Amino acid sequence: MKAPLTFLLAGLLAAPGVLADTLPGADKAFQCTACHGPDGMKHAPGQPAIGGRSSAELTAILQDYQHLRRINPAMQILLLPMSDQDLENVAEYFSLVGKTASAN
Q1: Which of 15, 44, 65, 95 is within CB 3.0–4.6 Å of 75 for a Cys-Cys bond?
Q2: pLDDT digit string (tens) for 60-91?
């Protein structure tokens, strides 16, 4: 009985929609999808692909925007109210969903 359940859970976690619903940063990362797309692989023209990049790299970039070392009014509006943990969660979210999307 364990094998079918394990297989089912593995399949559910591999589906991007399910993965997005279970990751800690999903609720905050949703704000980013208008420009960066649901998997961080670009949505709007001129936006960088952030999906699949390392969590540490993305966290550093988000912190640069939050601390005004990089300037982008849209990014500042979204990031200024976030905690350090929120930034780490959003970075982890895009790190993982981008890898999942590129595997499909």
Answers
A1: 65
A2: 999 999 999 999 999 999 999 999 999 999 99
Whether the predicted model's global pTM rises above the 0.70 cut: yes
Alpha carbon distance 47, 31 (integer Å) = 14
Q: Alpha-carbon distance 63 to 19, whole Å?
A: 24
Residue 39: which of 104, 84, 87 has the closest Cα?
104
The ranges assigned to domains in the chain are 2-103
Tell me, what amino acid is at 76? Q
Name the residue type at position 42: K
Cα separation, 98 vs 25, whole angstroms:
13
Look at the domain 2-103 and name its fold.
Cytochrome Bc1 Complex; Chain D, domain 2 (1.10.760)
Yes or no: say if 33 and 43 are a contact pair by the CB < 8 Å rule.
Answer: yes
Q: Nearest-CA neighbor of 20 among 42, 2, 45, 37?
A: 37
Rounded to the nearest 5°, which phi and psi values hold at 47? Answer: -90, 140
